[in-house]
Amino acid sequence: MSRYSRQQLVPVIGVEGQEKLRDAKVLVIGAGGLGAPVLLYLAAAGVGTIGVADGDRIEVSNLQRQVLYRTCDAGRKKVDVAIEALKALNPDVDLRCYPQYVTPRDAGVLVHDYDIVVSASDSFAAKLMINDACVCEAVPCVHGGVSGIDGQIMTTLPGTACYRCAFNFTSRDASAVENFAQTGTLGPAAGVAGTLQAAEVMKYVCGYGTLLTDRILLFDLSESGFHTLPVMKREGCSCCR
């Protein structure tokens, strides 16, 4: 009660919302620039079960934006360090570790065990794969992306427009985009996107507010601008048709 006292004072949370958070199971795929703030906020909020999936190791170049990690962690697996940090933050959370890259073969089985998924990968191909698995398994997903000082957030529920409806990429298109250029990322931009993803999860679990379904939130930190664009289910979408 002491740990969550200030959170429970928020009218849309209260004791009932805190109990819903305790009973929730959230999978975060990607423990980098987006996943780090997502994991910190969800663990701090008291989400009962959190899965962390990432096959990457920490590099010094990650530290500018991936706030879970420290210089001494370089070379270690991200999921191992993330689990340690989250346990230290909130030992009451049940943490599940998946120290590998999620593949199309295991994505469906993995997301099926959770109430909601956070797509925090920095790869277009991975984002599409996570979207496809969540749509197939009827599992809600909060998508996020960041490039430079810009970011995008979108939530999908069973029956709403999916990520492919918003970004009409084939897997080949996605690979071409990724190979075209490697963009930089401003640390606070990743932090804003990840924080908004965590907020979407809490809204879904506690049942308040309006989710970012059938629309995408765009932000630009150079102008401190936020706006949304409608996203309609695309006729002929290979995933949600």
The radius of gyration over CA amounts to 17 Å
Strand order of the largest sheet: 3-2-1-4-5-6-7-8
What's the total count of β strands?
8
Structural class estimated from helices and strands = alpha/beta
Biggest beta sheet attributes: 8 strands, mixed
Poorly predicted runs:
none
Fraction of residues in helix: 25-40%
The H/E string reads: HHEHEHEHEHEEHHHEE
Number of helices: 9
Shape estimate: globular
**Alpha-carbon distance between the two ends:** 45 Å
Mean pLDDT over all positions: 93
Strand content: 15-25%
Seen as an oligomer or otherwise, the chain set is single chain
How is this structure best described in words?
It is a single chain. The chain is α/β, with parallel strands linked by helices. It is 39% helix and 19% strand. The chain has helices at 5-8, 14-23, 35-45, 78-89, 104-112, 124-137, 163-166, 171-180, 187-206, and strands spanning 25-29, 49-53, 94-98, 116-119, 141-147, 150-156, 215-220, 225-230. Helix 5 crosses helix 6 (124-137). 45% of the residues are buried. The model has no long low-confidence stretch (mean pLDDT 93).
Labels describing this entry:
241 residues; alpha/beta; 9 helices
